[in-house]
Every structure is written in structure tokens, then in C-alpha cells.
Amino acid sequence: xxxxxxxxxxxxxxxxxxxxxxxxxxxxxxxxxxxxxxxxxxxxxxxxxxxxxxxxxxxxxxxxxxxxxxxxxxxxxxxxxxxxxxxxxxxxxxxxxxxxxxxxxxxxxxxxxxxxxxxxxxxxxxxxxxxxxxxxxxxxxxxxxxxxxxxxxxxxxxxxxxxxxxxxxxxxxxxxxxxxxxxxxxxxxxxxxxxxxxxxxxxxxxxxxxxxxxxxxxxxxxxxxxxxxxxxxxxxxxxxxxxxxxxxxxxxxxxxxxxxxxxxxxxxxxxxxxxxxxxxxxxxxxxxxxxxxxxxxxxxxxxxxxxxxxxxxxxxxxxxxxxxxxxxxxxxxxxxxxxxxxxxxxxxxxxxxxxxxxxxxxxxxxxxxxxxxxxxxxxxxxxxxxxxxxxxxxxxxxxxxxxxxx
Length: 406
Known about the structure:
- There is one protein chain.
- The chain has about 400 residues and is an alpha/beta fold.
- The N and C termini lie far apart (about 55 Å).
- The strands form three sheets. It has an eight-stranded mixed β-sheet. A four-stranded mixed β-sheet has the order 12-11-13-14, with helices on both faces.
- Strand 11, helix 12 and strand 12 form a beta-alpha-beta unit.
- The protein is built from 14 helices and 14 strands.
């Protein structure tokens, strides 16, 4: 079976490696010369839990899709901060539509707004090549569930959802993905689209709730950590008087990464734009999801305000601010939409960034104010216990005159 993976970035590279390592003939298509040059067997071997790792062919020539049995699209959908940018994605679909053969399976892993598979993908492929989805070619949506630092684990072991245009399409998708993952659930295209977006919107909303609780606690001088422990210790009692377990998240200084800041928007955008105004169920105003996204976006600004108040109340002259953790999540070096960097831009003091996993951010200074942006495990080993405890509790701590490193 010849599989062509289009796009060898964060998603496409481990996908191609996974299929190649189970014996499939794989060709990766990547426009970027620098990205192609970076793909080596040594780099692939960093993907854990899949052996033996095998190299696959890499090219910039999209014509290789002409004789493919399956085409897996792993090219991201651009986002301009307000709405998705479809033009490059649509251009790719048109190129594919003019080259695909009858009987090919086309699978889209790209995270997209609900309604995109039918309204955009199917339409563009059919218009460009004249083949009909469900009859001349098979169309499925298998939204990626990859996370930085655990790409291969998620590919192999997390449940996969496969949305298909028809039952035959779904069976073709199952045949493909069961080669690398035995936990596959089949569904409609729209169900798969919404499932991926909702799992990230759910987390975004829960983080926003925790962040808002932290603001309330801060205003009353209450330890939000104590509140969280008491809330989450409620027992999960099964029976007539069922008491569902609570899972209040840990508050932070914002939400970063590539997926969470945009997926809530994609979910709502698809509802408002691709379906509305033809849908009788219109988006509520105000929207819980939209307001949660707004709250998480403004958290760096609120943290900056807290720092400004500390500087004023402590009469600090020309203070030095140290922000700990630049990667948007613990244990990774991905800085996309990092709230630490957003906070850095908002501060008008001498501000330094520290991250143990990134050489450019190794400022181990004893600052006047220290902020814990990303709680890397490294900090548990290298910060003074009392400082660490205060940072985990309050995130922003006045450390003037105190040694923070062990």
C-alpha cells in the first residue's frame, strides 16, 4: 500500500514515520527545503515507542500523489487571530483534485471548523478533478490528537476518531488507521470535526474557570490552591444520590500552544459562518466558549497588573523581573503563543526569561519579582523549597533579597 503524507511538520512527520515503520510504502511531500533537509533517521529515532524506526522517501514533488493508494493531508489551516485563512488549504485541495486517481483514499488530519469536510474539502476535490466522493474516491477525516513531547504515544495508543463521507469511506479509513492504532471509532464527518474541536474547547473553558477563580481568590487574599484541593476532594459517590467528581484545573498565567488558542474559535466560527444563518439554532450571546477564550487571552495582562502593583506597593526602584518557563506547557520547548512571552512584552522593567530546556533562556538571576509561568519539573529540583511553594501557590512572588536557586 502506497501512502503519501502531504506536509511533514509537527503532525505529518510522526504520521509518516508510524506508517513506514509498520511496513507501508510511504512518501512524504514537503515544500520547505529546510524542513526536508532536517528529516533524518536520527531525528526519527527520537520518536519513542515505535520500533524499528524506518526512513521513508521525502520529496517536494506533489505529482507522487497520482499513484497513491492513500493520501494523508497534514497541512495546517492558517489562523489570522480572527478567522481561519482557507486560501493555501484550498489551493492544495485543488492541486490534489487534479491529480488523484479513482479508488484513492483521501484522509484529512488537519484541524478544521465543523462543516469544512463537506463544504470545502469535498467541494474543491470534486470541482478540480471531476471525481465524485463516495463513488470515485474515498474521503475521511481523522483529526490528529498529537501533543508535543508524546507524538508517537498518542498516535499508537490514544483512541482515534475516523469520520467518513459514507460507510464505505469509513471502512477504508478503518483499514488504513488500524495499521498503526487498534482503538478506532467510526462516525460521520461532522462528528469527527466537532469532536476534535470540543476536546480542546473543553480544556480551554476549564482553564478559564480556574483562572477566574484565581482572580477572585487573589482579590480576597485567599489561597486558590487550598480552594482547589477542597473542591476536588469531594467523593465520587455512585448511587441514587450521585455526586460527580470535581476536577478544577490548576490556574496559570494564560493558555499557549498552537491548538488551544485557536480551536475554540474554529468551533464557533464553523457554527456562525459555515452553518449560520441557515441553522435555526443560533450561537448564544454571550457565549461560554467565546468568553472563556477571552479570559484566557487576557491573563498575561492581569498578571502584568499584579506585578505593577507589587512594584508600587514595595516601592521597588528599577526592579528586575524573572519569568520562569517559556515553553507553553511543562517539559516542552514549543513557544507558540506562549503566555510567558506575551507577559514579557507587556512589562516595562528589566525583565528576563528563564527556561531550563532552551539555551537562549538561561538567566538564573535573583530577581526582585519572580513569576512562575510554566511549572517545569526541573524547577522542583532547582528552586529553593519555600520559593517554589510560594510560586506554585501565587505564581507571582516578590523575591527581593532572597536567593531563589538552590
